[in-house]
Fold:
Amino acid sequence: MKASKQSKLTLVVDPTVVSRAKSYASAHSTSVSTLVESFLNNLTAEDVTATSTDPDYWPPITRSLYGALAEQRDVNTDDLRRRHLSEKYLHD
Structure:
């Protein structure tokens, strides 16, 4: 997230949810605060396209996937669509 002046926020959350959130944050090398900030930022964004194109505003799991298919530039989506529909509707 962008560095700026921080404000403290107190939330009342079920202890089970807190435990799962801490485990998730730890597994994704982030903090619960960052997860909540990202969620609230996306929830309240006035211009969704502005935040949706900036990886700093993406949830950690989405950021970790960014660029995973960068080398797949020669994928023919028409062929993929035809293959999918054929397998879906023309199976034995």
